[in-house]
Amino acid sequence: MRIDKFLKVARLIKRRTVAKEVAGAGRLQVNGQVAKAGTEVKAGDEVTIRYGRKIVKVRVETLENAAQKGEASSLYTTLEETKVDDE
């Protein structure tokens, strides 16, 4: 599954277009490599997302084409959340 779709379905990012923008800005990594919006992810991959001053690292648990609000968080496990100071 494409990373932009996974982020939207998992509700880590609200809209797929925003996920594409995040990837285009180089703020998205899959297994430590900078990812494009079309990068494929699979169960077990580690995804790092930089939101402004916060960095979130998650592990992909399962891939679904759609998920209800209550089920979305079961698609991933949060490994780490860190705040970033201004550089």
Automatic annotation (TrEMBL):
<dbReference type="Pfam" id="PF01479">
    <property type="entry name" value="S4"/>
</dbReference>
<dbReference type="GO" id="GO:0019843">
    <property type="term" value="F:rRNA binding"/>
</dbReference>
<dbReference type="GO" id="GO:0072344">
    <property type="term" value="P:rescue of stalled ribosome"/>
</dbReference>
<dbReference type="InterPro" id="IPR036986">
    <property type="entry name" value="S4_RNA-bd_sf"/>
</dbReference>
<comment type="function">
    <text>Key component of the ribosome quality control system (RQC), a ribosome-associated complex that mediates the extraction of incompletely synthesized nascent chains from stalled ribosomes and their subsequent degradation. RqcH recruits Ala-charged tRNA, and with RqcP directs the elongation of stalled nascent chains on 50S ribosomal subunits, leading to non-templated C-terminal alanine extensions (Ala tail). The Ala tail promotes nascent chain degradation. RqcP is associated with the translocation-like movement of the peptidyl-tRNA from the A-site into the P-site.</text>
</comment>
<keyword id="KW-0694">RNA-binding</keyword>
<comment type="subunit">
    <text>Associates with stalled 50S ribosomal subunits. Binds to RqcH, 23S rRNA and the P-site tRNA. Does not require RqcH for association with 50S subunits.</text>
</comment>
<keyword id="KW-0648">Protein biosynthesis</keyword>
<dbReference type="InterPro" id="IPR002942">
    <property type="entry name" value="S4_RNA-bd"/>
</dbReference>
<dbReference type="GO" id="GO:0043023">
    <property type="term" value="F:ribosomal large subunit binding"/>
</dbReference>
<keyword id="KW-0820">tRNA-binding</keyword>
<protein>
    <recommendedName>
        <fullName>RQC P-site tRNA stabilizing factor</fullName>
    </recommendedName>
</protein>
<feature type="domain" description="RNA-binding S4">
    <location>
        <begin position="1"/>
        <end position="61"/>
    </location>
</feature>
<keyword id="KW-0699">rRNA-binding</keyword>
<dbReference type="InterPro" id="IPR025490">
    <property type="entry name" value="RqcP"/>
</dbReference>
<dbReference type="GO" id="GO:0000049">
    <property type="term" value="F:tRNA binding"/>
</dbReference>
<comment type="similarity">
    <text>Belongs to the RqcP family.</text>
</comment>
